[in-house]
Amino acid sequence: MSTTTEMDTARANGLGEVLRRSAARFRDKTAIIDGETRWSFRELDAIVSSVAAGLEARGVAKGDRIALLSRNSADFAAIAWGAARLGAILVPINFMLTADEVGYILGDAEPVAFITQPEFVGTADAAIEASGREIATRVVTGDATGGWTPFAELVATDASGWTAPLVADDDPIRLMYTSGTESRPKGALLTSRALQAEYLSAIIDGGMTGDDVDLHTLPLYHCAQLDCFLGPDIMLGVTSIILPAPDPATVLAAIAEHGVTKYFAPPTVWIGLLRHADFDGTDLSSLRKGYYGASPMPVEVLKEIQQRLPEVDLWNFYGQTELAPVATILPPHEQLSHAGSAGFPVLNVETRLVDDDGNEVAVGEIGEVVHRSPQIAAGYWRNPEKTAEAFHGGWFHSGDLAIADDEGRITIVDRKKDMIKTGGENVASREVEEAIYQHPDVAEVAVFALPDPKWVEAVTATVVAKEGSGLTAEALAEHCAGVLAPYKRPKRIEILTELPKNPSGKILKRELKLRYS
């Protein structure tokens, strides 16, 4: 081994090293609880090495992509860190997508391995067929079925003599598909350097400590749960409780059973907890830290949380996948005095608001949110045009519009990218519009968000039918059910005779929002 290689090895700081260091520091402390599964940090570290070695033995190499279609589980954590230790690029996929939508991601990412749960094998098989690709390594976290290898075989791999590849800080290890203004999602490449810089930002500005007990119920395929919480937890030596979904009764019971001290959820889930019949009768005295994101918390809900959970401090996390993902945080002491604000840039992020020429706007004026940070993605997967567009002028352009006050807090006022955030999920209006345009009786369509007490923002479609077609909202809803994941489908469909437009022919969505709000 050359001196340079030895030095690189000694200075290695890939994501897999984070868990290795925590396993050495915390050893027998419980890292993961998932039902009857309990892994210490040392056990998790050993399983991760076995998974990495098992994948390598099945032909997966550093830089290869591994698709993962799964609900939350201990296995999800083992796979994520196993891929990182191998230096493979994990591609977490939203399990609510249709087979065709998953197939698009497979065709774009070109994974050499696919890991899924038994309930998604049918979707996975159909997606592989739709992608037109052959994926040789197929693993299921359950009993073997239809050519899928059981995950237990990976875990059983003897890694005692296995040496992990050297993973450099800026080697890509994650490919996160994010909805944008385009009809198809883009893949944001995240590196170990980006993720660890983000972990530190979340830890410092999110008030996280090693004695926390964290509850994970939002999907780990999304970087908010995976990288704002599970990643920092592993870095700090926190015990993580993993549930498959944010069912209110199960969440409340888990907080009481495990003495949970911190919990993250979008406003819709917090509202569901407050409204549940078990809330007042459950011992929630251990809870000290609450986090929310995806959309602002309604002021009345903030007041209710503070009244019914007076010992809980709240943080608002704002960001996006390309920032790995947190960019700004509103701290607990400003939740009511600056309600609706996204707060201040975090430790490792510099943020400005600029006009279309890249000039910083004055306090109180609307500008696009741009960032500089080691947290930022290393571009878009095989998309140099969109990468250049996003990074022009030496800043990452978020596509969000905001105003800043004289102390530096930013408040998001609109989205250049026309994104709808519904129930904690991102939905690109253009993707829904293009799906609706597939119906033969549709002449024009505009999709936008309307405020909603349950979803915070509801996907809403206004449609002009082709003359004489007799198109109904019910028929269009049935069409959407066949081509869109459930969370992307319009909650409201209005059939109009015409859409409002400006003199240049651009549809005036703001006018539509005002009309139906």
Describe this structure as you would to a colleague.
Strand 23 (442-452) and strand 24 (456-465) form a beta hairpin. The protein folds into 3 domains: 41-167, Rossmann fold, CATH 3.40.50.980; 200-415, Rossmann fold, CATH 3.40.50; 419-516, GMP Synthetase, Chain A, domain 3 (2-Layer Sandwich). By secondary structure, it is α/β, with parallel strands linked by helices. It is globular, with a radius of gyration of 23 Å.
How much helix is in the residues?
A: 25-40%
Q: Give the beta-strand count.
A: 25
Largest sheet: 9 strands, mixed
Provide a count of the helices: 16
The poorly predicted ranges are none
Report the principal-axis shape: globular
Rg (C-alpha, Å): 23 Å
Query: Which topology of the largest domain does CATH recognise?
Result: Rossmann fold
Task: Report the structural category.
Answer: alpha/beta
Just name the CATH architecture of the largest domain. Answer: 3-Layer(aba) Sandwich
Distance between the termini: 67 Å
Biggest sheet: strands side by side, in what order?
2-1-11-10-12-13-14-15-16
Question: How much of the polypeptide forms β-strand, as a percent range?
Answer: 25-35%
Number of domains: 3
CATH homologous superfamily assignment of the largest domain:
ANL, N-terminal domain
- What CATH first level of the largest domain would be assigned? Alpha Beta
**Mean of pLDDT:** 93
Oligomer: single chain
